[in-house]
Amino acid sequence: MLTKRIIPCLDIKDGRTVKGVNFVSLRDAGDPVELAEIYSKSGADELVFLDISATEEKRKTLAELVRKVAATVNIPFTVGGGISSVEDVDVLLQNGADKVSINSAAVKNPELINELAAKFGRQCIVVAIDARQVQGKWLVHLVGGKVPTEIDLFDWVKEVEERGAGEILFTSMDHDGTKAGFANEALAKISDMVSIPVIASGGAGDKEHFCDAFTKGKADAALAASVFHFKEIEIRDLKQKMKEKGIEVRM
């Protein structure tokens, strides 16, 4: 059985790590390279860096940051934000990223998923999906959650797998930053629909929430930000709890 992964997420804005609630009210959480090193040494399985203003401001994720992180950590890391072409991905992978995450660009141009998977291998391509419930239906949102679409979450999940995504990073915008637990019902539905790994995001508040994401939500990995950045949960303690509950984890 594959071990379940714990992934700190560093939202980057203007070169700093930030964290908000429901995608707004951002506050500073520190230097991303320093945080990456701490997480690498404290038991994180992977890292995700999302340049949260890159798509909105139509600029590219900084390759320089990727270079610094690659020189500092010895665990895999994914980079996302403002990626919209083969060239963008090439630069990030050349500078040391292990995977890239695409979101808005994939919705606007679904063929991009096919192109990237064909060029770099699907193991490099993470499709991030931000969704929230609107009148009882899960709908995909773009540009850091600011732009709603009529796209059904579950239809989109199936399509991105068919187009060559290697992983899905699902964030429930309704749960993001609330610390009330992950969207386990939607997670389980997604996990049952696809054969690629699913990363849970949005809602982590305590160790039990992570365990629930793996047991009830059937997720392959769980991602969180503020509970790690502000030391509310230590990764080694979390993994110990998971182990006690019979969840396969790398200690």
UniProtKB/TrEMBL annotation:
Keyword Lyase: yes
GO cellular component: cytoplasm
Main location: cytoplasm
Family annotation (InterPro entries): Aldolase_TIM, His_biosynth, HisF, IGPS_HisA/HisF, RibuloseP-bd_barrel
Reaction it catalyzes: 5-[(5-phospho-1-deoxy-D-ribulos-1-ylimino)methylamino]-1-(5-phospho-beta-D-ribosyl)imidazole-4-carboxamide + L-glutamine = D-erythro-1-(imidazol-4-yl)glycerol 3-phosphate + 5-amino-1-(5-phospho-beta-D-ribosyl)imidazole-4-carboxamide + L-glutamate + H(+)
Positions of the catalytic residues: 11, 130
Keyword Amino-acid biosynthesis set for record: yes
EC number: 4.3.2.10
UniProt-annotated location(s): Cytoplasm
Enzyme class, UniProt record, top EC level: lyase
Protein keywords: Amino-acid biosynthesis, Cytoplasm, Histidine biosynthesis, Lyase
UniProt-listed GO biological process terms: L-histidine biosynthetic process
Entry GO MF terms: imidazoleglycerol-phosphate synthase activity; lyase activity
Record text on subunit structure and interactions: Heterodimer of HisH and HisF.
Listed PANTHER family: IMIDAZOLE GLYCEROL PHOSPHATE SYNTHASE HISHF, IMIDAZOLE GLYCEROL PHOSPHATE SYNTHASE SUBUNIT HISF/H IGP SYNTHASE SUBUNIT HISF/H
Assigned protein family: Belongs to the HisA/HisF family.
Record's function text: IGPS catalyzes the conversion of PRFAR and glutamine to IGP, AICAR and glutamate. The HisF subunit catalyzes the cyclization activity that produces IGP and AICAR from PRFAR using the ammonia provided by the HisH subunit.
Record's protein name: Imidazole glycerol phosphate synthase subunit HisF
